[in-house]
Design brief:
Elements: E1 5-10, H1 16-25, E2 29-34, H2 40-46, E3 50-53, E4 79-82, H3 84-92, E5 96-112, E6 125-138, E7 144-148, E8 156-159, E9 164-167, H4 179-190, H5 199-214, E10 219-222, H6 227-240, E11 244-250, H7 258-267, E12 272-277, H8 279-286, H9 292-314, E13 319-321, H10 326-331, E14 357-359, H11 367-376, H12 381-384, H13 404-423, E15 432-446, E16 449-462, E17 470-471, H14 476-490, E18 493-498
Parallel strand pairs: 1-2, 1-3, 3-4, 4-9, 10-11, 10-13, 11-12, 13-14, 16-18
Antiparallel strand pairs: 5-6, 5-7, 7-8, 8-9, 15-16, 16-17
Bound molecules: adenosine-5'-triphosphate, xanthosine-5'-monophosphate, glutamine and magnesium ion.
Length: 511
């Protein structure tokens, strides 16, 4: 069965996948396509039930700014323009867009016209999230303004007769109050969707696509035992069964006992599972390396080399599969976005890779969607709800040079922290928590003697999508218990600090 389709047309905005994600939250299937492919003819061929234009960095009146054919507005398909998309709708249909005297950025008080379908059932005044310098100065014929702010006369507009709607603010961002409800109104009240899409459909579609792509070829999946690659393993196993081999690389930078635990868990699955013990290989390549991006690149490359070596043992393997998810892609600098850090599986990949194609069935999903999909596929709760653990492992939690001794110290300290968080039943409330071995030593006193040992940092964060995060308010009693256990049981650590920065300005990991 084919699902109702909404096309999201990409004009280069920052929140495009977030729009897609909100549409999925409303149980509607959608696809994001670049504006260059969005001709009226192409759109018509796909029979979408609605169209959404995203924001974008350009100004519509500039030479060479992204455009859309005028015919797109007369196909009889409802259109919602967001930010740049709103300005483009106004511009193409004969309105005027100008540079504003006061640019609006951030939370903005906004007033809505209640009889616009987008705002039906919602308060007439609310906070919206704005991010623009241009504004709609004159409406196109047949349109009316349906919302305004102190500085922006057209914060939204519509031409209900033609099912054309636009918003200057970003409804997809959580800072916009009722933003998702407005998108839902567009989908249900304007486009008339029935809401026929579920995570089950996503799984089905992904499985079919993998089958078509792979044919009778072989696939090697990089399996870490983490949430993302476990969900990918379940999908791939359903899609291609015994053509799949899962490779778990124990690079010696896993958490305490983790290598054995992953092996025990996946040996029970009905899949080809291989554990590669590559401790020596990784540690020797990392010896003497201090710089975070360099560590990441080395690990990214070494992972691939291990996979290539394993592939040779299986015979001809054309496909490498990974559990990459959307935040990995964005932070590694997708498209025009800035590189924050090179996730080993994206920006850390070497230039030459000995596989024909890379399969990443979760590449457009956010973490909480991956979890929902895992549950849908019948994965055990402990797998679905595991806290994430980065591919480079403890390498990016040991600041400065990595040595086997430091790895052992950090493993022991981190184990105690995790054990106490679990004992306090906070392991689902704190979304990621771990220890970091700083490269700093300081003076302490133990048993009346001077010590000069490492400072350990504890990090705990709460977040939904791992793109932004707040530090977790861990109870002092728990911190105290963890602190005294680590000092008493681990050795080489004489001082413990708790990281109280959010993301941004910090990131979750320290490197
Ligand atoms: N030790 C490993 N062995 C094999 N593949 C790995 C390993 N670590 C990471 N990978 C690959 O890199 C991808 C990205 O790692 P990442 O940590 O983001 O995801 P994950 O481990 O699957 O899930 P989680 O975010 O829950 O840790 C994984 O999905 C997997 O394909
Ligand atoms: O597989 C991964 N490979 C990487 O190179 C990597 N770097 C960060 N992370 C994880 O991503 C989330 C966001 O982390 P940051 O705030 O530190 O960027 C957090 O959950 C991090 O643990 C990684 N995962
Ligand atoms: N976020 C956007 O889409 C911005 C649109 C346009 N570049 C402006 O500044 O107004
Ligand atoms: Mg992981």
């Amino acid at each position: 069965m084919k699902n109702e389709l909404v096309l999201v047309i990409d004009f280069g905005g920052q929140y495009n996948q977030l729009i897609a994600r909100r549409v999925r939250e409303c149980h509607v299937y959608c696809e994001v396509i670049p504006y260059t492919q969005a001709t009226a003819a192409e759109i018509q061929k796909r029979h979408p039930i609605g169209i959404i234009f995203t924001g974008g960095p350009n100004s519509v009146y500039e030479e060479g700014a992204p455009k859309i054919e005028r015919e797109v507005f007369s196909l009889g398909i409802p259109v919602l323009g967001i930010c740049y998309g709103a300005q483009l709708m106004a511009h193409v249909l004969g309105g005027t867009v100008k540079t504003a005297e006061t640019r609006e950025y951030g939370k903005t008080n906004t007033f809505f016209t209640p009889d616009c379908k987008l705002f039906s059932g919602l308060p007439q005044e609310a906070i919206t999230w704005m991010s623009h310098t241009d504004y709609i100065a004159a409406l196109p014929e047949g349109f009316r303004s349906t919302a305004h702010t102190a500085d922006c006369p057209v914060a939204a507009m519509d031409c209900a007769e033609k099912n054309l709607y636009a918003m200057q603010y970003h409804p997809e961002v959580l800072h916009t109050e009722n933003g998702t409800a407005m998108l839902k109104n567009f989908l249900y009240e304007v486009c008339g969707v029935s809401g026929d899409w579920t995570m089950g459909n996503y799984a089905q579609r992904a499985i079919e696509e993998i089958r078509t792509r792979v044919g009778d070829g072989k696939v090697l999946l990089a399996l870490s035992g983490g949430v993302d690659s476990s969900v990918a393993a379940a999908l791939l196993a359903k899609a291609v069964g015994s053509q799949l081999t899962c490779i778990f690389v124990d690079h010696g930078l896993m958490r305490k006992n983790e290598g054995d635990e992953v092996e025990a868990a996946f040996s029970k699955w009905d899949i080809n599972f291989v554990r590669v013990n590559a401790q020596e290989r990784f540690l020797s390549r990392l010896a003497g390396v201090n710089e975070p991006e360099k560590k990441r690149k080395i690990i990214g490359e070494e992972f691939i080399r291990v996979f290539e070596d394993e592939a040779k043992k299986i015979g001809r393997v054309d496909f490498l599969a990974q559990g990459t998810i959307y935040p990995d892609v964005i932070e590694s600098g997708a498209g025009d976005a800035a590189v924050i850090k090179s996730h080993h599986n994206v920006g850390g990949l070497p230039d030459y890779v000995d596989f024909k194609e890379i399969i990443e069935p979760l590449r457009l999903l956010f973490k909480d969607e991956v979890r929902a999909l895992g549950t849908e596929l019948g994965l055990a709760d402990y797998l679905v709800w595991r806290q994430p653990f980065p591919g480079p492992g403890l390498a990016i939690r040991i600041l400065g040079e990595i040595t086997a001794e430091k790895v052992a110290i950090l493993q022991d300290a981190d184990y105690i922290f995790r054990e106490e968080v679990a004992n306090a039943h906070l392991d689902r409330d704190i979304h990621q928590y771990f220890a970091v071995l700083t490269n700093m030593r300081s003076v302490g006193v133990m048993g009346d003697e001077r010590t000069y040992d490492y400072t350990l940092a504890l990090r705990g964060v709460t977040t939904t999508d791992f793109m932004t995060a707040d530090f977790a308010r861990i109870p002092y009693d728990l911190l105290q218990k963890v602190s005294s256990r680590i000092i008493n049981e681990v050795g080489s650590i004489n001082r413990i600090v708790y990281d109280i920065t959010s993301k941004p300005p910090a990131t979750i990991e320290w490197e």
